[in-house]
Amino acid sequence: MNEKRERIQNLVALLNQASRAYYQEDGEIMSNREYDRLYDELVGLEKETGIVLSSSPTVNVGYEVVSSLPKERHPSPMLSLDKTKEVSRLEEWLGGQEGLLSWKLDGLTIVLTYEDGALTRAVTRGDGIVGEVITANARVFDNVPLTIPAAEGTVVVRGEAVISYPQFEAINAAIEDADARYKNPRNLCSGTVRQLDSSITAGRHVKFFAFSLASDAPEASASGSGMTRRSQQMAWLRSQGFETVEEVPVTRDTVAEAVQGFADRIRDFEIPSDGLVLIYDDIAYGRSLGSTAKFPRDSIAFKWADETAQTTLREILWNPSRTGLINPIAVFDPVDLEGTTVSRASVHNLSIVQELRLRPGDTIEVYKANMIIPQIAGNLSAADHEAEAPPAQCPACDGPTRVRDENGIRTLHCPNPDCPAKKIKSFTHFVSRNAMNIEGLSEATLEKLIGRGCIHEPADIFRLQQHRQEIVDMEGFGEKSFENLIAACDTASRTTPDRLLYSLGIPGIGTSGARLIARAGRNKWEEIRHMTRDSLLTIDGIGEVLASDYAAFFADEKNIRVVDDLLEVLTLDESFEEAADQPLQGKTFVITGSLDQFANRDEAKERIQELGGKVAGSVSKKTDYLVNNDIESASSKNRKAKELGIPIITEQELLELMG
Q1: What's the whole-number mean pLDDT along residues 451-456?
Q2: pLDDT exceeds cutoff 80 at 175
Q3: Helix segments in 24-108, DSSP class H
Q4: How much of the chain is helix, strand and coil, in % rounded to 5?
Q5: 133 neighbors 70 (Cβ within 8 angstroms)
Q6: Percent of the chain with pLDDT over 70
Q7: What is the CATH number of the domain that holds 460?
Q8: What are phi and psi of 589, to 5 degrees?
Q9: Helix 651-658 to helix 601-610 angle, to the nearest 10 degrees?
Q10: Which of 61, 91, 546, 634 is 20 to 30 A distant from 249 in Cα terms?
Q11: Same structural domain for residues 137 and 281?
């Protein structure tokens, strides 16, 4: 009994932690399937022992919300739904009643309140008892009616706020920081709906789909007839301007066919869905059944019975991230699931690797969670051995790894502050357009190459030929992609001292500063790298802080080693010509507005500096010219220039000054 009680305590803590991560922190520490498996184990132990802890998720609807948004208590508890994966259970549950079958959308449940036809309140589900007030955000959802035809009384509508897959992908694509990208549309939606700045919400195109009317329609109540069917309520909601979840009328004899109809469309359905909901159409009958402490008895959720396939596990990749967390990914022989071929799946953390006893060569079962996300269902070889030990060394830096255990969840980490995986931004800067300009080497690709140990230092980028087969076999790569990458690296390896200087990421050294220093060093790398603080201060435009940081960078032994390593793989063009004419010597310019003759402001700035001028960011008494093709503009820079009597010139006039 003690062992079972201890197991109950551990399961309660683990499931509560997973729910907290999912609902409050927009994160995920285990798959839905794993959560359901552990939850079912807990239910079985509670029934067997009679022990039900007060904090058990089997008796608690949710968690207290934690944010700075205002809180509000719901008039009645918003319970979660009982669930099944068996169509036969749905048939049995319906009995002789008629029901409505609809998508179970995977977003954030919202309650909207209308007073005399106007939207006055929007509250999240929260813990089912208390939610967060997000009225300002709901007002900028793409399709929420701000007013409805029902002009009298109170109307309370429940529904799901969601972000579509195309919108999710577009938002993630615009986020350069790979670690900052959202894992799934549900997490993105949750964070968006609960923003403190509604302008952020407005830009993410959240949609609201109503699924129930929590109060009778005013005109129905006034007529004395009321609405007796859920289908009537849904039709009424549509008449008020709401988009509703799609519902299909079903009976015991037709529910199986309807379920299959939804299943056939899930792959092309643009709204995230984690199953279906079946509810009795007869409102009075459903209400007469009451509810348990956790579930209403008038509705039930259907979770997709996942299509599974057996395959052979080939390896476990351990991918380091910039946070230090090293994530396990299972790579297996390709299998067809839900209409696509998959060959890898995230395993979430070390705990799951160990619980499944995963080891290369194992026969495993894989599936797609909600028919979309590849996951491991089980290990058919688990009885034969323990799990493969996690790597003792970080794949990115070869430093010792460390296992952390937080409330029973074990994760693998790299504690090395100098791990290349933690410095992905410096590598991204190194390959950027104004630095080494390596086309096609995105941050996501860099992360993969660093995680596989192909890149430890910048010079390794120019030695990727040594890892040909490994890169060709990488997901998203192939022979052609590899050849293109190698060609881009080869082109970038022939560069100039100023580009190399800028690519090193020395604090304060931008493209213009790198050119000034390179010119002062007559484009000779050895002279450039050995410049002292005092010699740097003689360069017009280089200040004391920048000079000190520069000298400190080239005095650091680690940096010296990195640079020397780069010089072995790069070819520097050190040719130098004295500037014969400096027509802009001593002149300070500010550039604003759009340009026609130059590709961008950076190009104009570079040309001005080459001809002896300076470029500042704001207009002051030290400014000689403001460059703006719209001389009559009422912009703040134009107004300031006119106040100070500073000439405003066009781009063409700038070119004339340049000669």
Answers
A1: 87
A2: no
A3: 32-49, 87-94
A4: 40, 20, 40
A5: yes
A6: 91
A7: 1.10.150.20
A8: -120, 150
A9: 20
A10: 61
A11: yes
H/E element, 527: helix 525-529
The CB density around residue 558, as the number of other CB atoms within 10 Å, is 9
Same domain, 44 and 101: no
Which residue, of 413, 442, 466, is where some domain finishes?
413
Q: Which helix (H) or strand (E) holds 219?
A: helix 218-223
Q: Are residues 217 and 111 in the same domain?
A: yes
Angle between helices 87-94 and 255-265 (to 10 degrees): 140
The answer to whether residue 28 scores a pLDDT higher than 70 is: no
Q: Is 63 domain-assigned?
A: no
Give the position of tokens 């009778």.
Answer: 216
The whole-chain average pLDDT of the chain stands at 85
Rounded to whole angstroms, how far apart are CA atoms 13 and 293? 20
Q: Phi-psi region for residue 361, left (φ > 0), alpha (ψ -120 to 50) or beta? A: left
- pLDDT in the model for residue 510: 81
Q: Which domain does 430 fall in, by range?
A: 420-492
Return d(Cα 379, Cα 364) in angstroms, integer: 4
> What DSSP character marks residue 85?
S
The pLDDT of residue 266: 83
Q: Could you give the number of structural domains in the chain?
A: 6
pLDDT(110) > 90: yes
Residue 160, helix vs strand vs coil = strand
Q: Comparing 532 with 172, which gets the higher pLDDT? A: 532
Alpha-carbon distances of 365 from 51, 73, 335, 381, 499, rounded to whole Å: 33, 44, 10, 10, 51
Average of per-residue pLDDT across 87-113: 93
The average pLDDT across 496-521 equals 87
Q: Which phi and psi angles does 533 have, rounded to 5°?
A: -60, -45
108 and 184 assigned to the same domain = yes
Is residue 200 over pLDDT 90? no
Residue 81's SS3 state is: coil
CATH number at residue 322: 2.40.50.140
User: What is the residue-wise DSSP string for 309-352?
Assistant: EEEEEEEEEEEE-TTSEEEEEEEEEEEEETTEEEEEEE--SHHH
Q: Is 104 a catalytic site residue?
A: yes
404 pairs with which residues across the strands?
Answer: 411
Write down the pTM of the prediction: 0.53
Residue among 207, 238, 258 nearest 94 (CA): 258
Phi, psi of 388 (to 5 degrees): -60, 135
Residues contacting 570, CB < 8 A, separation 6+: 462, 493, 494, 495, 500
Question: HSE-up of 180 (CA within 13 Å, CB side)?
Answer: 9
Catalytic hit among 4, 83, 85, 104: 104
If you search the block for the tokens 């894992």, which residue do you land on? 183
Handedness of CA 361, 362, 368, 369 (dihedral sign): negative
In angstroms, the CA 459 to CA 482 distance is 17
Say whether pLDDT at 233 is over 90: yes
| pLDDT given for residue 597 in this prediction | 81
DSSP-derived 3-state class of residue 485: helix
CB 112 within 8 A of CB 327: no
Is residue 518 a contact partner of residue 510, using CB atoms and an 8 Å limit? no
- The span from the CA of 135 to the CA of 137, in Å, is 5
Integer Cα distance of 12 and 431 in angstroms = 48
Q: What is the pLDDT of residues 610-638, one digit of tens each?
A: 787 888 888 888 899 999 988 888 788 88
Q: Is residue 583 part of a domain?
A: no
- Binning pLDDT at 50, 70 and 90, where does residue 261 land? very high
